[in-house]
UniProtKB/TrEMBL annotation:
KW Membrane (keyword) present: yes
Keywords for this protein: Membrane, Transmembrane, Transmembrane helix
Organism: Streptomyces ficellus
Residue stretches making up the DUF1980 domain: 157-255
Region (Disordered): 63-84
Name the record gives this protein: TIGR03943 family protein
C-alpha cells in the first residue's frame, strides 16, 4: 500500500507541475518565466518515475506478496507482532498541496506581503536617458523610484507619468499625529530574483485619490509628489500626486524583474 501511495503522489505532483507550467501560465505566480523549462523537465521526470513505480508494483492491481513484504508495506514490526500503520496514513496529507495546484492554485503574493517590507531597494542606474516629450510617460515602479532617488538632472520634475501596480492600504497614523494619514495608499509591485520566496516590495505612496480595495490592480497617472528631500537624493519622497486611477486586470506575470528600467 505504501508504494502505491508513493506512485500516486509522484504522478499527481508531476501532473500538477505540468498543468501550471506547460498547459497554463499559473507558474508565473510562483517563479520567474526563465524557470519554465526546469519546471517542465521536473514534471516529466516525476511522471516517468511515477509510471515506473506503478508498473513495477502492478498499480492499481498489486500482485500478491508474502507476509514479510506485507508487514513492510503496512508498517514496521515493533517486536510484539504489531505493525505501525502511521506511515501510509500520514502520506495522504502530502496530496493536499498537489490537489490545490490542480483544482485551485493559490494566488500570487500581494498587499499582505508588500505591507511588511518598505525598503524600495533598486539597483544603481549609471545614467538616465531623456524621457519622451509626449506624456504621460509610462514607467515601471522600479524606474520611477530609481529616478526619484538617483536622477540628479531631475528629469521627473513636472512630468506626468503612468504606472501600474496593485493597491496596498496605508497603515494607520501614529499616535503623535504623524503617519500615512487619510487619503493615502501605496501603488505596489513585488520584485523577484528567482521565485516568490525571495520577493521584495516596491511601493509608491499615492496622494489625491481614494484608495481602491486592497490587491486591486490599477494604473495611476500623476506627477511626482514633493516632500522630504529634493528629487535625485536618497531622502526624496517616493510618492505621486494622482490625477487618474483606473482599474486594470492583473497581468499574467504579476512580479517585476530585479533590474530596474532606466526610464
Amino acid at each position: 500500500m505504501r508504494r502505491q501511495i508513493q506512485a500516486a503522489l509522484l504522478l499527481l505532483t508531476g501532473s500538477a507541475l505540468l498543468h501550471i507550467s506547460l498547459l497554463s501560465q499559473v507558474y508565473l505566480r510562483y517563479v520567474k518565466e526563465g524557470l519554465r523549462p526546469f519546471l517542465i523537465a521536473s514534471a516529466a521526470l516525476l511522471l516517468v518515475l511515477g509510471l515506473v513505480s506503478a508498473v513495477r508494483d502492478g498499480f492499481p492491481f498489486p500482485s500478491r506478496r508474502g507476509d514479510d513484504e506485507s508487514v513492510d508495506d503496512e508498517g514496521v514490526d515493533d517486536g510484539h507482532g504489531h505493525g505501525h500503520r502511521d506511515g501510509p496514513r500520514v502520506a495522504w496529507v502530502l496530496f493536499l498541496p498537489v490537489l490545490a495546484l490542480l483544482l485551485h492554485a493559490p494566488p500570487a503574493l500581494g498587499s499582505y506581503t508588500a505591507a511588511r517590507e518598505t525598503g524600495n531597494a533598486v539597483a544603481r542606474v549609471p545614467e538616465f536617458g531623456p524621457l519622451p516629450d509626449a506624456g504621460p510617460v509610462p514607467l515601471s515602479l522600479s524606474g520611477f523610484i530609481a529616478r526619484v532617488q538617483q536622477d540628479r538632472d531631475r528629469g521627473l520634475a513636472g512630468r506626468t507619468v503612468l504606472m501600474t501596480g496593485f493597491v496596498t492600504p496605508a497603515g494607520p497614523p501614529a499616535k503623535d499625529g504623524t503617519g500615512t494619514g487619510a487619503g493615502t495608499w501605496y501603488l505596489s509591485r513585488l520584485v523577484v530574483s528567482c521565485c516568490a520566496a525571495d520577493s521584495r516590495s516596491l511601493r509608491v505612496r499615492v496622494h489625491g485619490k481614494p484608495a481602491p480595495p486592497a490587491d486591486t490592480w490599477v494604473t495611476v497617472t500623476g506627477t511626482w509628489h514633493p516632500g522630504g528631500g529634493a528629487l535625485g537624493t536618497a531622502a526624496a519622497a517616493v510618492a505621486i500626486d494622482a490625477r487618474t486611477v483606473r482599474r486594470v486586470p492583473q497581468p499574467v506575470s504579476p512580479y517585476q524583474d530585479t533590474a530596474p528600467l532606466p526610464r
